[in-house]
Amino acid sequence: MPMRLCENLRISSKLRKPNLNFSRIHWASKLADMHNFRSVFRVQKTALIAAAAGCLALSFASPIQAAVADEAGTAPDLGYCPRPEADVTADGAREMIGEEPAAEEAGGEVLPADAVPVLESPQPDSLRVATYNAALTRDSAGDLLEDLSAPGAEDATEVARIIQTVRPDVLVLTGIDADAGENIAKAFNTNYLAVGSEEFAGITYPYLYANQTNAGVDSGADLDRDGTIGGPGDALGYGEFPGQSSMIVYSMYPLDADKIRDFSSMPWESMPDNSIPKNLTDLERNILPLSSVAHWDIPVAVEGETLHVLASAAADVSTSPHGQARNNDQIRFWQDYLESDTEYILDHRGDRGPLEDDAAFVIAGSLKADPEDNGPSTSDTIAELLKSDALIDPQQEHTLPPNVLGRGVLPNNPDAEHHTAPDPDNAGQTYRADYVLPGADLTVTDAGVFETGNERTDVYRSTFGMQSPENTHHMVWADIAIGE
Questions:
Q1: Which ranges carry the Endonuclease/exonuclease/phosphatase domain (predicted)?
Q2: Exposure check for the chain: N or C terminus, fewer CB within 10 A?
Q3: Structure pTM?
Q4: Is residue 14 part of a domain?
């Protein structure tokens, strides 16, 4: 019987807390298991491929390749795993340079079946959707790609370990440098996510989407009013170079490339009742897009049905004089997109209109606003979105063991259990910046904010086997029930 995304509003009265007695995972015996999308997700979800050096013996399909999946819903035949130095042609074909490295040369290791602790797996027939601000960025274009060209970068390894622990089926990764050619996305997938260790099993995403964003793209205007033209504050979205601190979407399931909608180039002034400051010139009004990074609608094919992943990332409001106004309208865009009469919305193909009625969706990404007035942004617009009847706010909480609460791990703030990011304007303070918000017709079976520790405590080393002192952002996730 075909899988159907849940049609009725059914959210658990009390979200199940993750079991801190970690379940064990097993290794897939065959490479094909990774691409056999079965009716019961748990089988596919725990079918992992042993990491062998910096590159597994498979390649990663781009959104265009994902669209050619066969009628049975399986992934297309995959060739060689793309190495970071592979040439990528305009049509997406890859020319491999050299031979695949041996496992011993890159330090890869096949692990025993009981070696890797993970969070409790989602319930059967559930889809785990997550977002994470990786804070994986460099000062110059090309530097991150160079660092990711082989395993070993410390910050990228920490990010990979977090992803390998939570193991989302769909991941909106923000705060990472990106390029329209998907080279960074593929290099991170190949040389970090796929590479395991004694503690963590590698994870490989056969589908991904990365595209040009507004971050770091020169506007030609003095947007930050510092008297000079050029620099991160004068970009269409804050950044030192195009693609700095952008967004990538990874998926275990095929992406419908022909129906992806990118709203990043939509003019800010096209939004009715927008909040554009009056001191902006006519030129600046004409050139500024609504998105400071990006807004994407990415349809994911899950067991014959479609889930629209509405992914977005925003710049911190303090990076621009008009950052607060723009942030408000970026959040309001998703409310408009869920309405039936918002014809102003225009995508990169020139198609107008909102999301189709009755379409299943989940909003995921970094909105950089807190409903309780924590952090740099005001709360009105995000609070209004979270109260919308069109979606569910799981109000994800930190997955902290009870015995460490109150030890100074989180600020003395009743809202801190929901916080996901450090306040860029107030050292030591945090706020809720990242969200996974399923549509109201879906069922949330579990949700949380994954705690990775900080420099003030090493209590998580024994609990999660990791600590991330440099990146104090936290991954947010929600398990969405699928099936009847």
A1: 154-454
A2: N
A3: 0.75
A4: no
